[in-house]
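Field reference: sequence -> structure
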Amino acid sequence: MKILIIDAQGGGIGKHLTSAIRQSRPEAEITVVGTNSIATSAMLKAGASHGATGENAVIVGARTADVIIGPVGIVIADSLYGEVTPAMAVAIGQSTAKRILIPVNHCDNIVVGVRDLSIKGLVEEVLLELQKIES
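Structure field:
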């Protein structure tokens, strides 16, 4: 399974995701893309197979991923303090990959109807969704 994890800012969510997925699925091909080099570096240190930075890396990665994981802002143009470009949001939205979007209520994007979980709790939810996809 080809997993693409996308994160912005400091890459904290992506780092936790990468580490947890690597532990639960050591065979997975995990590619990480940060909207900036700090985010990419954090995710690579957490055990990613490959990493890249920026808009074109998101566009290329979205073409071949089986699953794309990241905060909900990755599908909203200009979100995450402007780090998600319209081209990134379109590439993720048009990808044939399954998308697991983490409901992080930041940057004027509020997701209603979901539980308010810690990062650890959100990562556990992602692992459960990955299990469903593989079944």
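Note: Residues 85 and 95 are 16 Å apart (CA to CA).
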